[in-house]
Amino acid sequence: MCPPDSLGSAMHAHPLPRASVDISVHATPFASPEAKGPSLSAISGLGAEHLAAPVFVPKTAMSDSSSSTAPPSSATPGPPEWANAAPFTPPVDGMPSMQQQQHQHQQQQHQQHQQHPHQQGMGYDEGLGFEPQPGMEASMFMPAAHRRLPEHHLYTSPLPHVAAGRQPMHSFFIPDDVRRMIHSRQEATYANPGISQGIPTEVHVYHSLVPLGNPATMSNVSRVFHHPGPVYRAASTVDGNVYCLRRLEGYKLSSENAFAAVETWRQIRHANIVGLREAFTTKAFNDNSMVMVYDFHPDSTTIAEEWLNPDAIAHRRQTGAPIPERIVWSYVVQLANALKAVHTAGLAVRCLDANKVLITGKNRVRINGVGILDVLSFDQQTPMGLYQQEDLLNFGQLVMSLCADFVQPGHAQSIAQGLDYIGRAYSLDLKNLVGYLLGKPTALKTIDEVLRLAGPRILNELDALQAYNDVLENDLGAEVENGRIARMLIKLGFINERPEFEMDPQWSESGDRYVLKLFRDYVFHQVSPDGKPVVDLSHVLTVLNKLDAGARSREKIMLVSRDSQSCLVVEYRDIYKCIESAYNELRNAGKAMRR
Question: Would you tell me which of 34, 146, 383, 394 could form a disulfide with 133, CB atoms 3.0–4.6 Å apart?
Fold first, then answer.
C-alpha cells in the first residue's frame, strides 16, 4: 500500500497535478476554464461612481512585487475615467513578497529532494497548500505546504516492479493463493482424524500420534530402507511443535556407535534437507522399533507422486510435452546444493530417490530420510567416499527419470536412448550434466564438477528466488499493520455501549465517549442518499488508519448524531486522545480492582 500523505488521506491517493505558479498578472480569456476569479477585463462595465468606493485593504498585509507586474491587456477597453485612476497598491508591512515566498519554497523543495529523493513519485501530498492557477491573483492564496515524510508509521508502498499504480481492494491483504496454501498447511498440521487402533497415546516426549500416508501401504517394506517404515505426525511436550516420526519396525541395535552419525546430522540445517532432530529406540508399539524424528512439512508430496505417477506419465506421452526444463533445472540446483552441504560435512545422503525427495512448496524440494541408513546399515569398513559416489549416481538417475521416464536404470542401451532424447527435448547443458552423472569417469566424480556444469542455471535460480522473496515481502507488508487496526477496534469495543462504569449508566454516552459513539457511526453505520447501508471496507480501513496515526494528524471530519441534531467537527488527533483517555480510565480502574 502506498503510505498516506501528511493529511492522512486515503491509501493509494495520488496528489493532484499542480499548475506552475505565475507571479505576474495576465488576463485570462473568458473561454478559459481556469478563469475562476474575476479578471480586470471582466469589470469593465463598472460606472465612474464605483471609483469613489474606499480602497480595500486586507487584514493580513501582503505585498506584491510591482517590479515585474505589467498592465493587463483587455479585449474590452475600460471607461475613460480609469485613465486618471491611481493604481491599487497593497500596503507594505514588512511581509515577504509572493515572489520571495515562491523562491524560498522552490529552494526548500530542492533541498528536500536532495535529502529524500525516494519520495518522488510515491504519492506524497503537500497538505492544505493551494497554488493559484494562471490568471488568478497570487496574493489571494496561502503559500503551498512543503513536502515531507509522514510522521507516523503505516503501510509502506510496494516495489514498482511488484505492483504499480492504484492497488485494488484485495491488495490490502495477502493474495488468495497464499492464503489457501497457508490454510491448507494449517489444516494438515492440526487435523485430527480420530483415534487409530494400535497406536500408543504417547511415545517418548511425543503425543497425539496421527498416521500419515496411505494406511493400506504403511506396513509395506520400504524399497530404500528395506524395513517397514510407517510415518506419524506427533506433537512434542517439550516445545509444543509438531514433528514427523518415522518408525522402523523390527530394529535391533547392533552397536552403540550406530547413533554417532545422528549427532552429526542434527547439526546440519539446510534449506533443501528435512532436518533430523533425534533418534531413539522404543517398545511403545509392542515391538523393537527405532524412531527417527524429523521436521514436519505439512501438505507436501514427493517427486514420484507429482511427476512419476502413471497418470502424469500417460499425460506427458499423450501430449508430447515433457516436464518444463525450468523446473528440472530448479530441482537440479537445489539437490546439488544439498549434496554439496552433505559431502562437505563428511556424510552421504544414501537415500536420494524420487520417493524420498519432498516437494514442500512451489518448486521447493527437500531431501527426506537422511541418517536412516547410517544407523540401519552401520558399517565402519566402507569408506564414505564410496557412498558419496553412489549419491551422484542416484542423482543422475533421478534427473534421467524426470527427463526420460521410459529409461530403465542400469541398462546401458536404455541410458543411451535417454541421453539422446534429452538432447532433442532439452538443452545441451542438461544432457552433459546427466551424461557426467551416469557415465564412467576416469576419475572420481565430485559435486563441485556438477555445480560447475550447472553454473549459469544457478544464477537463474537465484534470480527467481529473490523475485519471489520480493513478492512475499510485499504480501507481508499488506498484513504487518493489521494488528494495529485490531488493537484500535478492541479499544473502541471496550468503550462503546458500555452499560455502566463507576455507578454511571450514561458513562459511554457522555463526555468524550459521546464523540467516540459518533465516530463509530461515521465508520460503520454510514448510509447512502437513498437510505441504504454503505458497506465499504476501504472506507473503514482508511479511517482507522488515519485514527491510528491521529496523534499527529490535524485532518478534520464531521460527526453527525443519528437524529441530525448534533454536529461536531473534530480532528483525528482529538478522537485519538478521547480513545486513549477513556481506555486508560477503564484500565486503571481494572488494575485498582485487582489490587
Answer: 34
